[in-house]
């Protein structure tokens, strides 16, 4: 799913309440603020919506210190690219080099100078906006605002490798609108946006929903075995069948497959899904066909 929020989010991590208050007072007018009091809470909130666009991370904390938290954040796929700025009372070159070597983008020293903090944060947030815009242009479909085919292949290979490495299930489905023909391109675009909105609303945050090609949508279902994926696909099919667009009933055919536990490339998984979709369309459409493992 894709979630859009114009107000960027900063996660402040510090075990001292007054330090959090000082930073929050500097930034709360311009950004949504989340707060964590220790490293474990930071790791949890960093993966909880709204996801942070930047993390201000204190180094000196009991238990898990900032350096260890940073290493953990960089090892988690969903947080690995979130910019981290270390905040510390130490300002030696060795400390700064260590932080930057771990993947931090900047270093702020205490006591906090509000004007300097605002300027540095604003600069990094502008870079974040530019990176996000570039990623959107590269990986998002302009019409539906879903991920595009290129992103599906990019992330599909990553998800397959991760599933095989950790031994968890992964399923892929493709839905294709049945027998929908119109010369009215405006109407077609309106319909595709409606279907895209429907899929975005009824899928999980961890699912990858993409506009695959003409009238086809792909959904990558992580931690989802074939039977569960089949139930989801049937639910999606029924939701689409209840739609009516400009006096016409809408139906869709679904092809579905689960990643083979002994291993296969994403391209092979996709090929099995497309063959199942072909069978669904040749069976009259408006149905779900699974490719058996």
Automatic annotation (TrEMBL):
* Alphabetized SMART domains for the sequence: GGDEF, REC
Q: Where does the secretion signal sit in this chain?
A: none
Could you list this entry's UniProt keywords, alphabetically sorted. Phosphoprotein
Stretches assigned to coiled coil: none
Concerning InterPro entries, the annotation shows: Bact_response_regulator, CheY-like_superfamily, GGDEF_dom, Nucleotide_cyclase, Rev_trsase/Diguanyl_cyclase, Sig_transdc_resp-reg_receiver
Gene Ontology terms: biological process: phosphorelay signal transduction system
Q: Where is the Response regulatory domain?
A: 9-125
Domain GGDEF stretches: 168-293
Its protein name is Response regulator
Q: What is the source species?
A: Aliikangiella coralliicola
